[in-house]
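Could someone model zinc ion with this protein?
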Amino acid sequence: MFKVLKVDHIGIAVSNLEQAKKFYTETLGMTALGEEVVEQQKVKVCFIPCGDSEVELLESTSPEGPIAKFIEKNGEGIQHVALRVDNIENALADLKAKGVRLIDEQPRYGAGGASIAFVHPKATGGILLELSQRK
Ligand code: ZN
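Reply:
Sure, complex below.
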């Protein structure tokens, strides 16, 4: 059993994190949290809290990274939507049992120490869906 708790964040692929961050902080007046490089995903991220959810800006640290490839194919923009779940292991086991196409069958490290896993867009109506469990 697992429960979806809320929209955790919206992940936005950007070419230049500093420049993108300025729009949210200076133009919209939001407050950005610190930046973090997640080596496994070849990405530098910055979370910007927005009420009960967050905006996650993602800049690739390598031309081979998934964010660089996303931008090459689609341009900058929304790359994924993340839903917070109460138990990610149970969520993955349950979705697998239901035959849902998963990108990650095991949770992996996500920015901020979250446990995350991606569900394939073919299973979700066309969006890359991240499941996220925070400590
Ligand atoms: Zn994310």
